């Protein structure tokens, strides 16, 4: 499995010819190294509706004629905008051609500004994505919460993708605890340095993981890692 980081919380995952993108905030993302028009995928997965995660969802889904996978209310909105969707919700899983998606809890919020009005977009979520024999966990935007221990006990997580920016999500110290609770073999930090108020030192975060026996991989936007 190949994971490519495109800045903020956007990642592209590839395995055996299948490609999915999670939280494709590219346009307006000062760290992004790819344009939405250049993304080729089989599905768009969303953790929640905030604009810095929803991003270029509609553009990518339309140009690839692919589904948007999201929590029910967010999927309903996407469907109203003329794209294919797969409605999901917390705790549910769905098998697609070449990959499986399961939605987990996340403690955050979820809304999108539509015609100048803030609209509720259902519960925020984390995503367990399995392709081949590998599983990654994208935590979305979340606080540290105790059920991460259960997620780690129930799933063999090869790589966890965790926010470290603080202010709006977990900070580095809480994310390091989350990594341990999730029993992740490898952790990729996200949701930092996009804007000044979430500036963090990702290398310092990976150093917090070393005593726990967890490999931290701080990717530059546009860089990839294999698992």
TrEMBL record:
GO-annotated molecular function: hydrolase activity
Pfam families: Lactamase_B_3
Cross-referenced Gene3D superfamilies: Ribonuclease Z/Hydroxyacylglutathione hydrolase-like
InterPro entries per the UniProt record, alphabetical: Metallo-B-lactamas (IPR001279), RibonucZ/Hydroxyglut_hydro (IPR036866), UPF0173 (IPR022877), UPF0173_UPF0282_UlaG_hydrolase (IPR050114)
Record flagged with keyword Hydrolase: yes
Domain spans labelled Metallo-beta-lactamase: 7-191
Reactions catalysed: 3',5'-cyclic UMP + H2O = UMP + H(+); 3',5'-cyclic CMP + H2O = CMP + H(+)
SMART domains: Lactamase_B
Keywords: Hydrolase
Record bears the keyword Hydrolase: yes
UniProt feature coiled coil, ranges: none
Listed NCBIfam families: PRK00685.1
Role: Counteracts the endogenous Pycsar antiviral defense system. Phosphodiesterase that enables metal-dependent hydrolysis of host cyclic nucleotide Pycsar defense signals such as cCMP and cUMP.
Family per record: Belongs to the UPF0173 family.
HAMAP family according to UniProt: UPF0173
Stated name of the protein: UPF0173 metal-dependent hydrolase QPK24_05090
Species for this entry: Paenibacillus polygoni
Phylogenetic placement of the source organism: Bacteria, Bacillati, Bacillota, Bacilli, Bacillales
């Amino acid at each position: 499995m190949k994971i490519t980081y495109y800045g903020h919380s956007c990642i592209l995952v590839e395995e055996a010819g299948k490609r999915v993108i999670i939280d494709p905030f590219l346009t307006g993302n000062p760290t992004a190294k790819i344009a939405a028009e250049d993304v080729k995928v089989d599905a768009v997965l969303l953790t929640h509706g905030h604009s810095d995660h929803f991003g270029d969802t509609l553009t990518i889904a339309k140009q690839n004629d692919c589904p948007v996978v999201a929590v029910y209310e967010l999927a309903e909105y996407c469907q109203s905008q003329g794209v294919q969707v797969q409605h999901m919700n917390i705790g549910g899983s769905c098998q697609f051609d070449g990959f499986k998606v399961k939605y987990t809890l996340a403690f955050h919020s979820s809304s999108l500004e539509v015609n100048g009005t803030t609209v509720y977009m259902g519960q925020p979520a984390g995503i367990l994505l399995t392709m081949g024999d590998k599983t990654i966990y994208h935590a979305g935007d979340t606080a540290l919460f105790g059920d991460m221990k259960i997620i780690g006990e129930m799933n063999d997580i090869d790589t966890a993708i965790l926010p470290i920016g603080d202010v709006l999500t977990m900070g580095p110290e809480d994310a390091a605890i989350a990594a341990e609770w999730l029993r992740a073999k490898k952790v990729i930090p996200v949701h930092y340095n996009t804007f000044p108020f979430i500036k963090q030192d990702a290398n310092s975060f990976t150093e917090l993981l070393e005593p726990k026996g967890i490999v931290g991989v701080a990717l530059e936007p546009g860089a990839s890692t294999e698992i």
